[in-house]
Design goal:
There is one protein chain. By secondary structure, this protein is α+β, with helices and mostly antiparallel strands. It has four helices and four strands. The chain has a four-stranded mixed sheet with strand order 2-1-3-4. Helix 1 crosses helix 3 and helix 3 packs across helix 4. The radius of gyration is 17 Å and the shape is globular.
Length: 134
């Protein structure tokens, strides 16, 4: 964190922190926003999930993309950490694996902004079984 040497530095820091908090806590209508959940269990953190989460926040600020970034526990994809679930309004969530800050840029530029599917999606490998059809 940069050293605060003046009132202007403090005001800039306050604005930056408020913007970051705003991106993480738009809880009044979350379904109307792009939602990003970064897996921050032990395996995710060890693999670099903190850098991934920070990059989602930074890139969203840079590109003026309206999204909610939150952290979650284990999603069960330890082999593919860091992972993040991205949900566009009105669409099913998609989980991306093996993330790094460069991949975050691609997710925002291609998938979030343009709806273009990209490499790195972890396919759904389970089904719900109806007990009446067993």
């Amino acid at each position: 964190m940069a050293k605060v040497k003046s009132l202007e530095d403090l005001k800039k820091l306050k604005t930056q922190l408020e913007n970051n908090l705003n991106l993480r806590e738009k809880s009044d209508n979350p379904d109307g926003y792009v939602q990003v959940k970064v897996a921050m269990a032990t395996c995710g953190i060890a693999a670099g999930a903190r850098d991934v989460m920070n990059r989602f926040i930074e890139k969203a600020n840079e590109e003026k993309v309206d999204l909610i970034v939150t952290q979650t526990g284990c999603m069960g994809y330890c082999y593919a950490e860091p992972t993040a679930e991205v949900k566009l309004p009105g669409k099913d969530p998609i989980v991306f694996g093996y993330l790094n800050p460069q991949k975050v840029d691609e997710i925002i530029d291609k998938y979030i902004k343009n709806g273009e599917l990209i490499e790195g999606i972890i396919p759904v490998n389970y089904q719900t079984i109806d007990k009446d059809n067993i």
